Amino acid sequence: MATATNLCGVKTPYSFSKRALRVQSLCLQSRISFDPLVDLCGVLRVRGSGKGRGVRVVCDARKSDVAGESEHLEGTSKELTCVMKFGGSSVASADRMKEVAELILSFPEENPVIVLSAMGKTTNKLILAGELASSCCAKVSEIEELSFIKELHYRTIDELGLDKSLITDHLNILEQLLKGLAVMKELTPRQRDYIVSFGECMSTRIFAAYLNKIGVKARQYDAFDIGFITTDDFTNADIMEATYPAVAERIHGDWISDPAIPIVTGFLGKGWKTCAVTTLGRGGSDLTATTIGKALGLREVQVWKDVDGVLTCDPNIYPGAEPVPYLTYDEAAELAYFGAQVLHPQAMRPAREADIPVRVKNSYNRNAPGTLITKSRDMSKAILTSIVLKRNVTMLDIVSTRMLGQFGFLAKVFATFEDLGISVDVVATSEVSLSLTLDPSKLWSRELIQQELDNVVEELEKIAKVNLLQHRSIISLIGNVQKSSLILEKVFHVLRTNGVNVQMISQGASKVNISLIVNESESEKCVKALHEAFFESDLPDLVYVNGSPPLEAKA
């Protein structure tokens, strides 16, 4: 098996050993060294100070040289094929870790990269431990959350037959860190991210050690040490472009030199300015998985959850929710952003850019087909795909008669939100008014929410009259844009029948989402009624103003 070698942009028809290749600089000042290690794609890495200068590649390869390189390639395992990401509930105990290991091994044709979240409940316990240590707890050793974390991880290690030294250092450092917070009486976002990172760092070490114990060669990686470069927005950082080549070089290079299943911490990165540990926001392990998929150009990203894929609505609200077999990237992104707990809102971006399918499956029911997310799908028969409920939303009505005919008003409004660090969800405008909802995801306590809302109202009242409405919910209808009139017609019929008043409506630029704002007390009733109407019954008889159905409903 002979492969091409790519050297300084010149592709040669074979891979060559070091002794068979001469690199001659066309400039006396150029110095080029090279690593003869050939990767699975036949790429020979070249290093040196000859950037921008001419290079002549002279090939004196013999058949024996080509054969030797072919033997080297055939002697390694086949290339990495996919990413398998497992959430906290999938690795919540020793038994669950054993089941995940068995699941991975049940796909012998795959050479996966494994991305893990922290063990179930660990992230929340770490956050609470940090808050208690920095506020009112006199003795860190008495924090129940710390005791829970220690007991859970040590018990898991014991049940898996592993050495406790795997995580002893991490737990000791965590306890010392909490003691430091108790002295400073402060928990900054940067410190919070560092504390939270201990969950993924421990779960991946335990799982990698277990795989090695049962004879499956595995290698653990901390994402912040292998090139996951992020913005310095602690608690909600974003992946930067420099991440992709760095991650590819590290994981691919290690795989070629010494094949072992990579076990990578999800959710974590390293700030590009501070070099401090950052987190990617709730559910950020999904973004870790799709980032690795794009970086390595893998065939597929598999996200293993505790449900049978993406569902038509939240099963906790309506038990009759059904799996959605196919979604587009746009639909999945809208579902995630507006509250579906299956995927991280930003996880679709790397997958879309690299056109890599994302498959959502159930680790408790591996035979279920799950949901396949791709660039496009057959929408000819689709009307509504899923219904998502986002609770605890605050709505603002901003009215200014001075807005009529004025430019710059919207810029001033949104500059206020930018200055206060608050995200906006849904927006609707008229000539003299603006209605919008605020994203509660970054607001961590009731006191902080009220404080920020007070600041918003105070700033906006300088330029307009503001009416603040709390206890609202967003119901997002993800569906076929070609059927939007039919969707709205049916929605208003259902809500009118149930006596529900819609306070605001918006259709986003993606054109796959229609959002309705209702009172929170009526939200679950709305979701149930809409699910029954769209997924469990035919279109009800409607009363039309002109006595005939709209064009979309005909034929």
Automatic annotation (TrEMBL):
Reactions listed under catalytic activity: L-aspartate + ATP = 4-phospho-L-aspartate + ADP
Places the protein is found: Plastid, Chloroplast
Keyword Mitochondrion: no
PROSITE patterns assigned to the protein according to its UniProt record, in alphabetical order: ACT, ASPARTOKINASE
Keywords recorded for this protein, A-Z: Amino-acid biosynthesis, ATP-binding, Chloroplast, Kinase, Nucleotide-binding, Plastid, Repeat, Threonine biosynthesis, Transferase, Transit peptide
One GO cellular component, as annotated: chloroplast stroma
Coiled-coil blocks: none
Domain ACT: 398-471, 476-550
Xref: Pfam families: AA_kinase, ACT_9
One GO-annotated biological process of the protein: threonine biosynthetic process
InterPro entries in the record: AceGlu_kinase-like_sf (IPR036393), ACT-like_dom_sf (IPR045865), ACT_Aspartokinase (IPR054352), ACT_dom (IPR002912), AK-LysC-like (IPR041746), Asp/Glu/Uridylate_kinase (IPR001048), Asp_kinase (IPR001341), AsparK_Bifunc_asparK/hSer_DH (IPR042199)
Pathway: Amino-acid biosynthesis; L-threonine biosynthesis; L-threonine from L-aspartate: step 1/5; Amino-acid biosynthesis; L-methionine biosynthesis via de novo pathway; L-homoserine from L-aspartate: step 1/3; Amino-acid biosynthesis; L-lysine biosynthesis via DAP pathway; (S)-tetrahydrodipicolinate from L-aspartate: step 1/4
Any one Gene Ontology molecular-function term assigned to this protein's record: ATP binding
Family that this chain belongs to: Belongs to the aspartokinase family.
PANTHER family for this protein: ASPARTATE KINASE, ASPARTOKINASE
Function description: Involved in the first step of essential amino acids lysine, threonine, methionine and isoleucine synthesis via the aspartate-family pathway.
UniProt-recorded name of the protein: Aspartokinase
